[in-house]
Write a structure and sequence with these properties.
Elements lengths: L1 E10 L3 H12 L4 E4 L12 E3 L4 H6 L5 H11 L6 H23 L5 E4 L16 E5 L10 H10 L3 E3 L2 E8 L5 E8 L5 E12 L8 H7 L1 H6 E4 L7 H8 L9 E10 L10 E2 L14 E3 L13 H7 L8 E6 L25 H14 L2 E4 L2 H7 L4 H17 L20 E13 L10 E3 L5 E7 L10 E2 L7 H19 L1
Parallel strand pairs: 1-2, 1-9, 2-6, 9-18, 10-12, 10-16, 11-19
Antiparallel strand pairs: 3-5, 4-5, 7-8, 8-9, 11-16, 13-14, 14-16, 15-16, 17-18
Helix pairs in contact: 1-5, 1-13, 3-4, 4-13, 11-12
The structure holds flavin-adenine dinucleotide.
Protein backbone atom coordinates (compact mmCIF):
# COMPACT_ATOMS: atom_id res chain seq x y z
CA UNK A 1 0.00 0.00 0.00
CA UNK A 2 1.25 3.48 -0.88
CA UNK A 3 1.20 5.38 2.42
CA UNK A 4 -1.01 8.37 2.86
CA UNK A 5 0.91 11.09 1.08
CA UNK A 6 -2.38 12.29 -0.35
CA UNK A 7 -5.21 14.09 1.39
CA UNK A 8 -7.69 13.64 -1.46
CA UNK A 9 -7.94 11.21 -4.36
CA UNK A 10 -10.11 12.22 -7.30
CA UNK A 11 -11.14 9.39 -9.63
CA UNK A 12 -11.74 10.62 -13.19
CA UNK A 13 -9.78 13.46 -14.82
CA UNK A 14 -12.45 15.09 -16.98
CA UNK A 15 -15.13 17.71 -16.27
CA UNK A 16 -16.14 17.02 -12.65
CA UNK A 17 -12.71 15.61 -11.75
CA UNK A 18 -10.66 18.54 -13.06
CA UNK A 19 -12.78 21.03 -11.11
CA UNK A 20 -12.84 18.90 -7.94
CA UNK A 21 -9.07 18.58 -7.89
CA UNK A 22 -8.44 22.30 -8.40
CA UNK A 23 -10.89 23.26 -5.64
CA UNK A 24 -9.36 20.85 -3.10
CA UNK A 25 -5.82 21.95 -3.98
CA UNK A 26 -6.77 25.63 -3.62
CA UNK A 27 -7.72 24.80 -0.04
CA UNK A 28 -4.26 23.37 0.58
CA UNK A 29 -4.92 19.64 0.09
CA UNK A 30 -2.38 17.32 -1.50
CA UNK A 31 -4.43 15.88 -4.36
CA UNK A 32 -3.98 12.87 -6.64
CA UNK A 33 -6.16 12.47 -9.75
CA UNK A 34 -6.32 9.07 -11.43
CA UNK A 35 -7.91 8.20 -14.75
CA UNK A 36 -8.21 4.81 -16.40
CA UNK A 37 -7.42 6.19 -19.85
CA UNK A 38 -4.28 7.80 -21.26
CA UNK A 39 -5.88 11.26 -21.62
CA UNK A 40 -8.93 13.26 -20.67
CA UNK A 41 -8.50 16.77 -22.12
CA UNK A 42 -10.84 16.29 -25.06
CA UNK A 43 -13.75 15.31 -22.80
CA UNK A 44 -14.10 18.87 -21.47
CA UNK A 45 -17.25 20.32 -23.04
CA UNK A 46 -17.85 23.64 -24.68
CA UNK A 47 -21.33 24.77 -23.67
CA UNK A 48 -21.68 25.12 -19.92
CA UNK A 49 -24.77 26.42 -18.15
CA UNK A 50 -24.87 28.81 -15.21
CA UNK A 51 -27.03 31.36 -13.49
CA UNK A 52 -25.49 34.80 -13.09
CA UNK A 53 -21.92 34.19 -14.23
CA UNK A 54 -19.81 37.27 -14.96
CA UNK A 55 -20.15 36.46 -18.67
CA UNK A 56 -23.93 36.47 -18.34
CA UNK A 57 -23.82 39.76 -16.42
CA UNK A 58 -21.71 41.31 -19.21
CA UNK A 59 -24.26 40.11 -21.78
CA UNK A 60 -27.22 41.36 -19.76
CA UNK A 61 -28.61 37.83 -19.41
CA UNK A 62 -30.92 37.40 -16.44
CA UNK A 63 -32.50 34.15 -15.30
CA UNK A 64 -35.12 33.94 -12.57
CA UNK A 65 -33.71 31.31 -10.19
CA UNK A 66 -37.05 30.20 -8.79
CA UNK A 67 -38.62 29.91 -12.23
CA UNK A 68 -35.70 27.76 -13.39
CA UNK A 69 -35.83 25.46 -10.34
CA UNK A 70 -39.59 25.08 -10.75
CA UNK A 71 -39.11 24.29 -14.44
CA UNK A 72 -36.45 21.65 -13.70
CA UNK A 73 -38.51 20.10 -10.90
CA UNK A 74 -41.59 19.95 -13.08
CA UNK A 75 -39.59 18.58 -16.02
CA UNK A 76 -38.48 15.73 -13.74
CA UNK A 77 -41.88 15.41 -12.05
CA UNK A 78 -39.99 15.97 -8.79
CA UNK A 79 -38.08 12.71 -9.15
CA UNK A 80 -35.06 14.78 -8.12
CA UNK A 81 -33.64 16.36 -4.98
CA UNK A 82 -34.72 20.03 -5.05
CA UNK A 83 -31.91 20.87 -2.61
CA UNK A 84 -29.47 19.81 -5.32
CA UNK A 85 -31.22 21.99 -7.89
CA UNK A 86 -30.96 25.00 -5.58
CA UNK A 87 -27.34 24.14 -4.78
CA UNK A 88 -26.56 24.18 -8.49
CA UNK A 89 -28.48 27.41 -9.15
CA UNK A 90 -26.63 29.14 -6.30
CA UNK A 91 -23.12 27.87 -7.10
CA UNK A 92 -22.92 27.56 -10.89
CA UNK A 93 -22.01 31.23 -11.40
CA UNK A 94 -19.07 30.95 -9.00
CA UNK A 95 -17.79 27.80 -10.72
CA UNK A 96 -17.93 29.45 -14.13
CA UNK A 97 -16.26 32.62 -12.84
CA UNK A 98 -13.40 30.48 -11.46
CA UNK A 99 -13.13 28.83 -14.86
CA UNK A 100 -13.02 32.13 -16.69
CA UNK A 101 -10.67 33.99 -14.32
CA UNK A 102 -8.23 31.25 -13.29
CA UNK A 103 -8.23 28.92 -16.28
CA UNK A 104 -9.41 30.57 -19.49
CA UNK A 105 -8.21 34.18 -19.35
CA UNK A 106 -4.55 33.29 -18.62
CA UNK A 107 -4.73 31.19 -21.79
CA UNK A 108 -6.39 33.77 -24.04
CA UNK A 109 -9.95 32.38 -23.80
CA UNK A 110 -13.10 33.69 -22.18
CA UNK A 111 -16.77 32.82 -21.78
CA UNK A 112 -19.40 34.09 -24.16
CA UNK A 113 -22.95 33.99 -22.80
CA UNK A 114 -25.68 33.04 -25.25
CA UNK A 115 -28.86 34.98 -24.68
CA UNK A 116 -31.11 33.80 -27.47
CA UNK A 117 -32.64 30.68 -25.95
CA UNK A 118 -36.34 31.29 -26.35
CA UNK A 119 -39.24 29.40 -27.79
CA UNK A 120 -42.84 30.25 -28.17
CA UNK A 121 -44.65 27.16 -26.91
CA UNK A 122 -44.85 25.41 -23.54
CA UNK A 123 -43.24 22.35 -25.10
CA UNK A 124 -40.24 24.47 -26.01
CA UNK A 125 -39.80 26.81 -23.08
CA UNK A 126 -36.09 27.61 -22.89
CA UNK A 127 -33.63 29.44 -20.60
CA UNK A 128 -30.57 31.44 -21.77
CA UNK A 129 -28.20 29.45 -19.55
CA UNK A 130 -25.34 28.73 -21.97
CA UNK A 131 -21.76 29.97 -21.67
CA UNK A 132 -19.48 29.12 -24.62
CA UNK A 133 -15.70 28.73 -24.38
CA UNK A 134 -13.99 30.80 -27.03
CA UNK A 135 -11.01 32.98 -27.84
CA UNK A 136 -12.53 35.06 -30.63
CA UNK A 137 -16.33 34.60 -30.47
CA UNK A 138 -16.14 32.99 -33.89
CA UNK A 139 -15.42 29.42 -32.81
CA UNK A 140 -15.23 27.21 -29.73
CA UNK A 141 -11.86 26.42 -28.20
CA UNK A 142 -12.04 22.63 -28.21
CA UNK A 143 -8.76 22.27 -26.37
CA UNK A 144 -9.50 24.02 -23.07
CA UNK A 145 -9.35 20.84 -20.96
CA UNK A 146 -5.58 21.05 -21.03
CA UNK A 147 -5.79 24.45 -19.35
CA UNK A 148 -7.78 22.98 -16.44
CA UNK A 149 -5.23 20.23 -16.01
CA UNK A 150 -2.32 22.69 -16.20
CA UNK A 151 -4.05 24.98 -13.68
CA UNK A 152 -4.53 22.01 -11.33
CA UNK A 153 -0.90 20.97 -11.75
CA UNK A 154 0.25 24.50 -10.96
CA UNK A 155 -1.73 24.15 -7.72
CA UNK A 156 0.25 20.98 -6.94
CA UNK A 157 -2.21 18.34 -8.16
CA UNK A 158 -0.65 15.09 -9.38
CA UNK A 159 -2.20 13.18 -12.31
CA UNK A 160 -1.77 9.44 -12.91
CA UNK A 161 -3.28 8.15 -16.16
CA UNK A 162 -3.87 4.51 -17.20
CA UNK A 163 -4.82 3.93 -13.58
CA UNK A 164 -8.23 2.38 -13.04
CA UNK A 165 -10.21 2.35 -9.81
CA UNK A 166 -11.25 -1.24 -9.10
CA UNK A 167 -12.42 -1.05 -5.47
CA UNK A 168 -12.66 1.44 -2.63
CA UNK A 169 -10.72 0.78 0.58
CA UNK A 170 -12.55 1.15 3.87
CA UNK A 171 -11.62 0.93 7.55
CA UNK A 172 -13.48 -0.98 10.27
CA UNK A 173 -16.10 1.81 10.52
CA UNK A 174 -16.69 1.69 6.73
CA UNK A 175 -14.96 5.04 6.26
CA UNK A 176 -13.46 5.26 2.76
CA UNK A 177 -9.70 5.57 3.16
CA UNK A 178 -8.40 5.02 -0.34
CA UNK A 179 -8.56 3.12 -3.61
CA UNK A 180 -7.40 -0.16 -5.07
CA UNK A 181 -6.29 0.50 -8.64
CA UNK A 182 -5.05 -1.44 -11.63
CA UNK A 183 -2.44 -0.17 -14.07
CA UNK A 184 -4.30 -0.65 -17.37
CA UNK A 185 -1.05 -1.34 -19.25
CA UNK A 186 0.83 -3.65 -16.87
CA UNK A 187 -2.23 -4.89 -14.94
CA UNK A 188 -0.31 -4.36 -11.71
CA UNK A 189 -2.67 -3.84 -8.77
CA UNK A 190 -1.86 -1.47 -5.90
CA UNK A 191 -3.55 0.44 -3.11
CA UNK A 192 -3.34 4.18 -2.50
CA UNK A 193 -4.70 5.87 0.61
CA UNK A 194 -6.19 9.33 1.13
CA UNK A 195 -6.43 11.05 4.51
CA UNK A 196 -9.51 13.15 3.84
CA UNK A 197 -11.50 11.38 1.19
CA UNK A 198 -12.10 10.02 -2.29
CA UNK A 199 -14.16 11.91 -4.89
CA UNK A 200 -15.73 9.79 -7.62
CA UNK A 201 -15.98 11.65 -10.94
CA UNK A 202 -16.18 8.59 -13.16
CA UNK A 203 -19.11 9.47 -15.44
CA UNK A 204 -21.97 7.24 -16.58
CA UNK A 205 -22.44 3.62 -17.63
CA UNK A 206 -23.82 3.82 -21.19
CA UNK A 207 -21.09 1.65 -22.70
CA UNK A 208 -21.69 -1.20 -20.27
CA UNK A 209 -24.56 -3.18 -21.77
CA UNK A 210 -24.96 -5.43 -18.72
CA UNK A 211 -25.49 -2.39 -16.48
CA UNK A 212 -27.77 -0.83 -19.10
CA UNK A 213 -29.94 -3.97 -19.06
CA UNK A 214 -30.11 -3.73 -15.28
CA UNK A 215 -30.52 0.01 -14.70
CA UNK A 216 -31.94 1.42 -17.95
CA UNK A 217 -33.11 -1.25 -20.43
CA UNK A 218 -35.24 1.19 -22.44
CA UNK A 219 -32.11 3.20 -23.29
CA UNK A 220 -30.86 0.24 -25.31
CA UNK A 221 -34.01 0.57 -27.43
CA UNK A 222 -33.92 4.37 -27.67
CA UNK A 223 -30.32 4.55 -28.84
CA UNK A 224 -28.44 3.33 -31.87
CA UNK A 225 -25.11 4.75 -30.69
CA UNK A 226 -23.35 5.82 -27.53
CA UNK A 227 -20.80 8.61 -27.83
CA UNK A 228 -19.20 7.92 -24.45
CA UNK A 229 -17.48 4.59 -25.06
CA UNK A 230 -15.44 4.76 -21.84
CA UNK A 231 -18.56 4.98 -19.60
CA UNK A 232 -18.44 1.54 -17.95
CA UNK A 233 -20.05 2.47 -14.61
CA UNK A 234 -17.07 1.10 -12.66
CA UNK A 235 -16.98 4.03 -10.22
CA UNK A 236 -20.63 3.56 -9.33
CA UNK A 237 -20.17 -0.20 -8.90
CA UNK A 238 -17.23 0.42 -6.55
CA UNK A 239 -19.45 2.73 -4.45
CA UNK A 240 -22.27 0.18 -4.34
CA UNK A 241 -19.78 -2.34 -2.92
CA UNK A 242 -19.32 -0.10 0.14
CA UNK A 243 -23.06 0.36 0.64
CA UNK A 244 -23.95 3.39 -1.48
CA UNK A 245 -27.51 4.00 -2.67
CA UNK A 246 -28.24 5.01 -6.25
CA UNK A 247 -31.21 6.33 -8.26
CA UNK A 248 -33.82 3.68 -8.94
CA UNK A 249 -34.97 5.19 -12.22
CA UNK A 250 -32.89 6.12 -15.27
CA UNK A 251 -31.99 9.55 -16.60
CA UNK A 252 -30.08 10.27 -19.78
CA UNK A 253 -29.07 12.78 -22.43
CA UNK A 254 -29.89 11.67 -25.97
CA UNK A 255 -29.45 13.31 -29.36
CA UNK A 256 -32.04 12.50 -32.04
CA UNK A 257 -29.56 12.36 -34.90
CA UNK A 258 -28.02 8.92 -35.15
CA UNK A 259 -28.07 8.00 -38.87
CA UNK A 260 -28.48 4.26 -39.41
CA UNK A 261 -28.59 2.11 -42.56
CA UNK A 262 -32.04 1.51 -44.08
CA UNK A 263 -33.51 -1.66 -42.59
CA UNK A 264 -31.67 -1.46 -39.26
CA UNK A 265 -33.14 -3.49 -36.41
CA UNK A 266 -32.61 -1.39 -33.30
CA UNK A 267 -32.73 -4.48 -31.06
CA UNK A 268 -29.29 -5.56 -32.25
CA UNK A 269 -27.75 -2.21 -33.19
CA UNK A 270 -25.84 -0.33 -30.49
CA UNK A 271 -22.52 1.10 -31.66
CA UNK A 272 -20.08 2.39 -29.04
CA UNK A 273 -17.97 5.00 -30.78
CA UNK A 274 -17.55 8.69 -30.01
CA UNK A 275 -17.28 9.28 -33.76
CA UNK A 276 -20.74 7.76 -34.31
CA UNK A 277 -22.77 8.65 -37.38
CA UNK A 278 -24.04 11.93 -36.05
CA UNK A 279 -26.19 13.50 -38.77
CA UNK A 280 -26.65 16.95 -37.23
CA UNK A 281 -29.44 17.91 -39.62
CA UNK A 282 -31.48 15.18 -37.88
CA UNK A 283 -32.03 17.61 -35.00
CA UNK A 284 -33.83 20.05 -37.31
CA UNK A 285 -37.62 20.02 -36.92
CA UNK A 286 -38.25 18.84 -40.49
CA UNK A 287 -40.93 16.33 -41.48
CA UNK A 288 -40.40 13.05 -39.60
CA UNK A 289 -42.41 9.85 -40.04
CA UNK A 290 -42.49 6.42 -38.42
CA UNK A 291 -41.61 3.23 -40.29
CA UNK A 292 -45.23 3.06 -41.54
CA UNK A 293 -44.72 6.42 -43.27
CA UNK A 294 -47.02 8.29 -40.85
CA UNK A 295 -46.26 11.55 -39.06
CA UNK A 296 -46.52 10.87 -35.32
CA UNK A 297 -45.44 13.90 -33.22
CA UNK A 298 -44.49 17.58 -33.12
CA UNK A 299 -40.95 17.59 -34.53
CA UNK A 300 -40.22 20.79 -32.56
CA UNK A 301 -40.04 18.87 -29.28
CA UNK A 302 -36.75 18.62 -27.33
CA UNK A 303 -34.28 16.20 -28.94
CA UNK A 304 -34.91 13.42 -26.51
CA UNK A 305 -38.71 13.58 -26.74
CA UNK A 306 -38.49 12.31 -30.31
CA UNK A 307 -36.83 9.14 -29.05
CA UNK A 308 -39.43 8.81 -26.30
CA UNK A 309 -42.27 9.14 -28.84
CA UNK A 310 -40.65 6.40 -30.92
CA UNK A 311 -41.15 3.89 -28.11
CA UNK A 312 -44.80 3.88 -29.24
CA UNK A 313 -43.99 3.44 -32.92
CA UNK A 314 -43.05 0.31 -34.87
CA UNK A 315 -39.33 -0.44 -35.06
CA UNK A 316 -38.46 2.50 -32.69
CA UNK A 317 -36.82 4.49 -35.52
CA UNK A 318 -37.93 7.56 -37.49
CA UNK A 319 -37.36 8.67 -41.08
CA UNK A 320 -36.73 12.34 -41.85
CA UNK A 321 -37.96 13.56 -45.24
CA UNK A 322 -36.96 16.86 -46.85
CA UNK A 323 -35.86 18.38 -50.14
CA UNK A 324 -33.05 20.39 -51.73
CA UNK A 325 -34.94 23.68 -51.26
CA UNK A 326 -34.91 23.15 -47.48
CA UNK A 327 -31.12 23.24 -47.51
CA UNK A 328 -31.16 26.94 -48.49
CA UNK A 329 -33.61 27.84 -45.72
CA UNK A 330 -32.08 26.23 -42.64
CA UNK A 331 -31.63 29.48 -40.75
CA UNK A 332 -35.38 29.95 -40.31
CA UNK A 333 -35.67 26.89 -38.04
CA UNK A 334 -33.66 28.69 -35.30
CA UNK A 335 -32.16 25.59 -33.69
CA UNK A 336 -29.83 26.04 -30.70
CA UNK A 337 -26.70 24.36 -29.36
CA UNK A 338 -24.55 22.34 -31.70
CA UNK A 339 -27.19 22.13 -34.45
CA UNK A 340 -27.42 25.92 -34.65
CA UNK A 341 -26.41 27.61 -37.90
CA UNK A 342 -23.57 30.04 -37.26
CA UNK A 343 -21.71 30.90 -34.06
CA UNK A 344 -21.90 29.54 -31.39
CA UNK A 345 -22.84 26.48 -33.41
CA UNK A 346 -20.40 24.90 -35.79
CA UNK A 347 -22.53 24.72 -38.90
CA UNK A 348 -23.18 26.83 -41.94
CA UNK A 349 -25.45 26.18 -44.89
CA UNK A 350 -22.41 25.08 -46.89
CA UNK A 351 -21.30 22.84 -44.00
CA UNK A 352 -24.72 21.17 -43.83
CA UNK A 353 -24.72 20.66 -47.61
CA UNK A 354 -21.29 19.06 -47.37
CA UNK A 355 -22.54 16.81 -44.56
CA UNK A 356 -25.53 15.85 -46.69
CA UNK A 357 -23.27 14.90 -49.60
CA UNK A 358 -21.06 12.90 -47.25
CA UNK A 359 -24.05 10.91 -45.94
CA UNK A 360 -25.38 10.44 -49.48
CA UNK A 361 -21.99 9.01 -50.46
CA UNK A 362 -22.03 6.71 -47.44
CA UNK A 363 -25.55 5.53 -48.31
CA UNK A 364 -27.22 6.64 -45.06
CA UNK A 365 -29.17 9.38 -46.88
CA UNK A 366 -31.17 8.36 -49.94
CA UNK A 367 -32.07 10.76 -52.78
CA UNK A 368 -34.93 10.51 -55.28
CA UNK A 369 -36.82 12.58 -57.82
CA UNK A 370 -40.23 11.53 -56.54
CA UNK A 371 -41.71 10.68 -53.15
CA UNK A 372 -42.73 7.26 -54.46
CA UNK A 373 -39.15 6.47 -55.47
CA UNK A 374 -37.90 7.79 -52.13
CA UNK A 375 -40.38 5.58 -50.23
CA UNK A 376 -39.18 2.51 -52.12
CA UNK A 377 -35.54 3.31 -51.36
CA UNK A 378 -36.39 3.80 -47.65
CA UNK A 379 -38.50 0.59 -47.40
CA UNK A 380 -41.57 2.72 -46.53
CA UNK A 381 -45.14 2.12 -47.85
CA UNK A 382 -45.37 4.21 -51.05
CA UNK A 383 -49.07 5.09 -50.69
CA UNK A 384 -48.79 6.15 -47.05
CA UNK A 385 -45.67 8.29 -47.49
CA UNK A 386 -47.19 9.98 -50.56
CA UNK A 387 -50.33 10.76 -48.54
CA UNK A 388 -48.34 11.99 -45.50
CA UNK A 389 -46.17 14.33 -47.58
CA UNK A 390 -49.16 15.76 -49.49
CA UNK A 391 -51.02 16.43 -46.25
CA UNK A 392 -47.92 17.98 -44.64
CA UNK A 393 -47.56 20.29 -47.62
CA UNK A 394 -51.18 21.36 -47.18
CA UNK A 395 -50.46 22.24 -43.54
CA UNK A 396 -47.41 24.23 -44.63
CA UNK A 397 -49.47 26.12 -47.22
CA UNK A 398 -52.10 26.92 -44.59
CA UNK A 399 -49.35 27.99 -42.12
CA UNK A 400 -50.98 26.03 -39.31
CA UNK A 401 -50.11 22.57 -38.03
CA UNK A 402 -53.58 21.43 -36.97
CA UNK A 403 -52.26 17.87 -36.39
CA UNK A 404 -49.40 18.36 -33.90
CA UNK A 405 -48.98 22.11 -33.31
CA UNK A 406 -45.53 22.78 -34.78
CA UNK A 407 -44.74 26.49 -34.94
CA UNK A 408 -45.62 28.18 -38.24
CA UNK A 409 -42.02 29.31 -38.89
CA UNK A 410 -40.91 25.69 -38.74
CA UNK A 411 -43.39 24.46 -41.36
CA UNK A 412 -41.47 24.04 -44.62
CA UNK A 413 -43.06 22.16 -47.54
CA UNK A 414 -41.52 19.10 -49.18
CA UNK A 415 -43.08 20.00 -52.52
CA UNK A 416 -40.42 19.57 -55.20
CA UNK A 417 -37.42 17.33 -55.81
CA UNK A 418 -34.78 16.30 -55.41
CA UNK A 419 -36.05 14.69 -52.20
CA UNK A 420 -33.97 13.23 -49.39
CA UNK A 421 -34.59 10.82 -46.50
CA UNK A 422 -32.56 9.32 -43.67
CA UNK A 423 -33.38 6.78 -40.94
CA UNK A 424 -32.62 8.10 -37.46
CA UNK A 425 -32.25 6.68 -33.95
CA UNK A 426 -30.91 8.07 -30.70
CA UNK A 427 -27.33 8.85 -29.78
CA UNK A 428 -26.73 8.41 -26.06
CA UNK A 429 -24.35 11.10 -24.87
CA UNK A 430 -24.43 9.98 -21.26
CA UNK A 431 -26.48 8.33 -18.55
CA UNK A 432 -27.35 10.80 -15.78
CA UNK A 433 -28.78 8.62 -13.00
CA UNK A 434 -26.26 7.82 -10.30
CA UNK A 435 -25.22 7.66 -6.69
CA UNK A 436 -27.27 9.43 -4.05
CA UNK A 437 -25.43 12.53 -2.80
CA UNK A 438 -26.33 15.40 -0.48
CA UNK A 439 -25.61 19.10 -1.04
CA UNK A 440 -22.03 18.62 0.22
CA UNK A 441 -21.58 15.95 -2.45
CA UNK A 442 -21.21 13.20 0.15
CA UNK A 443 -22.29 9.80 -1.14
CA UNK A 444 -25.22 8.43 0.85
CA UNK A 445 -25.96 4.89 2.01
CA UNK A 446 -29.25 2.97 1.92
CA UNK A 447 -30.48 5.05 4.91
CA UNK A 448 -29.58 8.32 3.14
CA UNK A 449 -26.74 8.85 5.64
CA UNK A 450 -23.28 9.95 4.42
CA UNK A 451 -20.59 7.32 3.89
CA UNK A 452 -17.60 8.95 5.59
CA UNK A 453 -14.80 9.88 3.21
CA UNK A 454 -16.75 9.28 -0.01
CA UNK A 455 -17.89 12.03 -2.41
CA UNK A 456 -19.22 12.02 -5.98
CA UNK A 457 -19.89 14.57 -8.72
CA UNK A 458 -20.84 14.63 -12.38
CA UNK A 459 -22.65 11.85 -14.18
CA UNK A 460 -21.77 9.20 -11.61
CA UNK A 461 -23.85 11.17 -9.07
CA UNK A 462 -27.64 11.21 -9.19
CA UNK A 463 -30.63 13.06 -7.81
CA UNK A 464 -30.41 15.90 -10.32
CA UNK A 465 -31.97 14.51 -13.49
CA UNK A 466 -34.77 12.07 -14.18
CA UNK A 467 -35.94 10.68 -17.50
CA UNK A 468 -35.07 13.02 -20.36
CA UNK A 469 -32.48 15.79 -20.29
CA UNK A 470 -33.89 19.35 -20.40
CA UNK A 471 -31.95 20.42 -23.49
CA UNK A 472 -33.63 23.85 -23.43
CA UNK A 473 -31.37 24.69 -20.48
CA UNK A 474 -28.24 24.54 -22.64
CA UNK A 475 -25.06 23.23 -21.01
CA UNK A 476 -26.74 21.82 -17.91
CA UNK A 477 -24.92 18.46 -17.77
CA UNK A 478 -21.45 19.95 -18.10
CA UNK A 479 -22.38 22.58 -15.52
CA UNK A 480 -23.78 19.94 -13.16
CA UNK A 481 -20.38 18.22 -13.45
CA UNK A 482 -18.10 21.22 -13.01
CA UNK A 483 -20.18 23.04 -10.38
CA UNK A 484 -20.62 19.97 -8.20
CA UNK A 485 -17.05 18.84 -8.90
CA UNK A 486 -15.82 22.15 -7.52
CA UNK A 487 -18.16 21.89 -4.52
CA UNK A 488 -17.02 18.34 -3.79
CA UNK A 489 -13.39 19.48 -3.81
CA UNK A 490 -14.19 22.27 -1.36
CA UNK A 491 -16.39 20.13 0.92
CA UNK A 492 -13.96 17.21 1.24
CA UNK A 493 -11.34 19.56 2.65
CA UNK A 494 -13.77 21.49 4.86
CA UNK A 495 -15.36 18.35 6.36
C1 LIG B 1 -19.80 14.41 -27.68
C2 LIG B 1 -20.39 14.99 -26.43
C3 LIG B 1 -20.52 16.36 -26.32
C4 LIG B 1 -21.07 16.92 -25.17
N1 LIG B 1 -21.17 18.27 -25.10
C5 LIG B 1 -21.74 18.81 -24.01
C6 LIG B 1 -21.85 20.23 -23.89
O1 LIG B 1 -21.38 21.00 -24.74
N2 LIG B 1 -22.48 20.72 -22.79
C7 LIG B 1 -22.98 19.90 -21.81
O2 LIG B 1 -23.57 20.39 -20.84
N3 LIG B 1 -22.83 18.57 -21.87
C8 LIG B 1 -22.22 18.00 -22.94
N4 LIG B 1 -22.06 16.65 -23.01
C9 LIG B 1 -22.41 15.85 -21.82
C10 LIG B 1 -21.25 16.05 -20.82
O3 LIG B 1 -20.02 15.70 -21.38
C11 LIG B 1 -21.32 15.21 -19.62
O4 LIG B 1 -22.61 15.05 -19.14
C12 LIG B 1 -20.45 15.73 -18.44
O5 LIG B 1 -19.58 16.73 -18.80
C13 LIG B 1 -19.69 14.57 -17.90
O6 LIG B 1 -18.71 14.95 -16.98
P1 LIG B 1 -18.15 13.89 -15.93
O7 LIG B 1 -16.96 14.51 -15.34
O8 LIG B 1 -19.24 13.43 -15.04
O9 LIG B 1 -17.76 12.59 -16.75
P2 LIG B 1 -16.74 12.40 -17.95
O10 LIG B 1 -16.44 13.67 -18.62
O11 LIG B 1 -17.31 11.28 -18.75
O12 LIG B 1 -15.39 11.91 -17.22
C14 LIG B 1 -15.29 10.70 -16.55
C15 LIG B 1 -13.82 10.33 -16.47
O13 LIG B 1 -13.68 9.26 -15.52
C16 LIG B 1 -12.78 8.31 -16.03
N5 LIG B 1 -13.11 7.02 -15.39
C17 LIG B 1 -14.25 6.31 -15.49
N6 LIG B 1 -14.19 5.20 -14.74
C18 LIG B 1 -12.97 5.21 -14.13
C19 LIG B 1 -12.32 4.32 -13.23
N7 LIG B 1 -12.90 3.19 -12.79
N8 LIG B 1 -11.06 4.62 -12.82
C20 LIG B 1 -10.44 5.75 -13.27
N9 LIG B 1 -11.02 6.64 -14.14
C21 LIG B 1 -12.28 6.37 -14.55
C22 LIG B 1 -13.03 8.34 -17.53
O14 LIG B 1 -11.93 7.81 -18.25
C23 LIG B 1 -13.26 9.83 -17.78
O15 LIG B 1 -12.06 10.50 -18.09
C24 LIG B 1 -21.50 16.07 -24.12
C25 LIG B 1 -21.34 14.69 -24.22
C26 LIG B 1 -20.80 14.14 -25.37
C27 LIG B 1 -20.64 12.65 -25.45
Amino acid sequence: MENAAYDVIVVGAANAGGFAAGAAAEKGAKVLVIDKKANSEYLYRNTIASVDSHAQQRAGVKIDKRELVEFLSAFAQDNVDQQLLWTWVNHSGEALDWLEEKVLKPNGDHLYATGDAYYETLMNKAFPSGNEITADEKAWDWGWGKYVIATDQALGVEFQYNTKLEHLLTDAQNRVIGVQVEDTETHAVREITAKQGVILCTGGYGANEALMQKWAPTLLKKNTYTQSPRDDGSGQVAALEVGAARDLEPASIIFDRGAVPVGTNIDDYYVKDWQSHQFVLGSYPLLKVNLRGERFFNESAPYQFAMNSLMHQPGHLEVMVWNAKTMDNLKQFHTLGCSRLGWPGIFSTDGEKKLLQDYLDKGYVQQADSIAELATKMHLPVDQLTKTVAHYNDLCDAGKDTDFGKEAYRLFPVDEGPYYAVTLGGILLATLDGLHVNSQMQVLDQHEAPIAGLYAAGNCAGGFFWGAYPDRVPGLTASHAVTFGRLAGQCVVDA
